[in-house]
Amino acid sequence: MQFLRDGDEVLQVPPVQPIHTLTVSVRTRFVIAASGRRGLAGRMANTTIALVTGGNKGIGFETAAQLAATGATVLLGARDRVRREEAVAALRATGADVHPVELDVTDPASAVAAAALVDATYGRLDVLVNNAAVSGGWMPLTGSDPAVVRAVFDTNVVGVMNVTNAFLPLLRRSAAPRVVNVSSSVGSLHVQRDFRGPLGQLPGSAAYVPSKAALNALTVQYAKELRGTGILVNAVDPGYCATDFNNHAGTRPAAAGAANVVRLATVGNDGPTGGFYADDGAVVPW
Ligand SMILES: NC(=O)c1ccc[n+]([C@@H]2O[C@H](COP(=O)([O-])OP(=O)(O)OC[C@H]3O[C@@H](n4cnc5c(N)ncnc54)[C@H](OP(=O)(O)O)[C@@H]3O)[C@@H](O)[C@H]2O)c1
């Protein structure tokens, strides 16, 4: 189904993807072998280490590029080996320090294996961007398919918990740990409840919209549980970006949405936690 107004999304069901074993690039393997954990971790002490899930395309890819442009070492998490390697190659061609990490967010073992790899290589994580998501199509509640609802929540909500929990021990070792959950304005109950507004006029959604509302709730719960640890956890609305997610019907480039993500990913230690932000840090109502 297609949304027609600015700020809306057009959704599509992604294909089922095969599961791969954990891999690391030849370059990274060489660096690990040459340096050992301590040596590399020591040399990386002043470099931000950032992981982006679903980094192989769309907003995740642009986020990886923009984080790398700040000087960060970017770990590009993606579930498909070919798409992962192609994305890493494209970013490296620009001079970015980007490394592939196999990561299917729906698989807790995959998240744990990815965290073990990052731990062994860098010893910590500074920035986690939970970007990976699926739409499940725009499915009305009446006659909705519970299997699709479960699949969407498994990626967009439980997947965020899988990855965040696996990487929390590494985030706790960072001097400036940040978690950014890529949400959506459709996940705002306030916006949805405005029945005369552009999003409130849309038909009900059984899966994607509730999953983003749940992600917002999860963001607040993590911020609450991690209060006092220095780990700042925020949700971001990237806006309506032209990506595969909406058959490129979005009204602005993915890079514009990524800028919102990077803003929260690089916020200072006095920055917010448990918030929901859009362009230029504008607060999105829950
Ligand atoms: N585009 C918009 O207008 C818009 C608006 C508001 C919010 N958002 C949010 O922005 C984020 C990125 O969306 P996008 O527009 O960039 O979509 P996209 O181009 O379809 O990218 C989605 C990414 O998520 C990955 N992914 C899906 N399931 C995964 C899994 N189980 N494990 C690992 N990776 C998985 C995909 O990998 P594969 O290539 O392997 O499928 C892909 O890299 C999502 O959270 C979305 O909800 C987008």
UniProtKB/TrEMBL annotation:
Gene3D superfamilies reported for this sequence: NAD(P)-binding Rossmann-like Domain
This protein's UniProt keywords: NADP, Oxidoreductase
Pfam families (alphabetical): adh_short (PF00106)
GO MF entries: oxidoreductase activity
Xref: InterPro entries: NAD(P)-bd_dom_sf (IPR036291), SDR_fam (IPR002347)
SUPFAM superfamilies associated with the record: NAD(P)-binding Rossmann-fold domains
Xref: PANTHER family: (+)-NEOMENTHOL DEHYDROGENASE (PTHR43490), SHORT-CHAIN DEHYDROGENASE_REDUCTASE (PTHR43490:SF99)
Family: Belongs to the short-chain dehydrogenases/reductases (SDR) family.
Name of the molecule in the record: Dehydrogenase
